[in-house]
Task: structure prediction
Amino acid sequence: VRVVSNLYPALDRQEVVVHSPRHATSVAELDVDDLHAVAEAWRLRAAAAREEGFPYVHALVNEGREAGASRSHSHSQLAWLRERPPAVVAEDELAADGCRVCELVADELRDGRRMVAEGGGLAALAAYAGRLPYELLVVPVGHPAGSAFRDDLLPGALELLGDAVRRLHAVEGAVPLNAWLHDGEHWHVELVPRLTVLAGLELGAGIYVNTLAPEEAAERLRDADR
Ligand SMILES: [Zn+2]
Ligand SMILES: [Zn+2]
Result:
C-alpha cells in the first residue's frame, strides 16, 4: 500500500491510497492482508492530518468512471478537512438525545430481514431507507469509543466492505460504486452502488426513487455465490 498526493486536489490536502501493487480493480479483489494494510495507511495518515491541524479525514472509495474514479487501479482517497463535513454534522445532530445508530443496529439485528453479513463485532446491512438499490451500511454493533481511525474494528470493517462488494459483484456484476467513512459519534461505512442515475427528482427535491426494497437487496446479497 502506498500513499501519494492527489495530482488534482479539490481541497487543500487530498491523498490517494494505492491499495495493492497488483492491478486489482476493486476492493472486492483485495485479500485480508491488503485490506488491513489499507486500514493501517488510513490510520497513519489520519494521525498525520490531526497533527497538521486537520481534525477530520474523509476517507472514500470511488469505483468505475460513472462513480467518479479516474483510474481503474483500486485506491481510496483521504480528504483532509478542518471541520466535520455537513453530512456527518447532520447525523450527529440526530444523535443529540441518544445514539440513533445503536438503535438502528439493535432493531436490524432483531428483525434480521435487512442483514447481509455479521461478524467480529460488525454488521453489514441494507439501509432501511436507502437512496439507491443495494445501499449498504457497515457498522460496529456496539457504540464505538471514538474515531474509526483509532478503532481496532477498522480493519474488520474494510474486510466486511470487501465482502459486501464481492456479493454485489456476484449479483449485479462490477457496477460503479461509491463508499465512504462517516467518522461521527457512531462511525460507519456507507456503500452506494450506482445502478441508476440521479435526475431532477433526486437532485432537485431530495426525493430518491429506489426500485429495490432493502429486504430484497439483503436477501440477494446474503444468498450471493461469491
Ligand atoms: Zn451508537
Ligand atoms: Zn452516515
Notes: The two ends are 25 Å apart (CA to CA). Helices lie at 32-51, 86-94, 100-111, 154-172, 200-205, 214-222.
